[in-house]
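Researcher: I'd like a structural prediction for the single chain below. Treat it as a standalone chain; there are no partners to consider.
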Amino acid sequence: GHIFGTSLQLDITGGTGSSYNVYEDGALVAKCRVMNGTDESVYRIRVDKLLIYDKDDNLIAAAGFGEIEGMVLSANSYGEWIFRFPPETVKNPDADLRAIHVNGSLTYDH
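Model: Treating it as a single chain, here is the predicted structure.
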């Protein structure tokens, strides 16, 4: 497996003003793009940690999600997935979601 920032990466889909990134009953729902920049297919992609930050780098939410069921990415492709951060993982429920970014760690098989 690899760590975030090497060849398999996460990004927020839609970027600024995305309607996909919303609060629902205290939870944060965020649509992310998983990008495979390697030259081989990857599978059993596991999101060990996903952190969402506002434009000023303040932490909004942090959680681990385990395996993204059924996602297989061929070389140099991407897939999208919706992550739901339970209310207890949301650190700032009033944050501005119009300009957010992510960090975290991924592992996978190939």
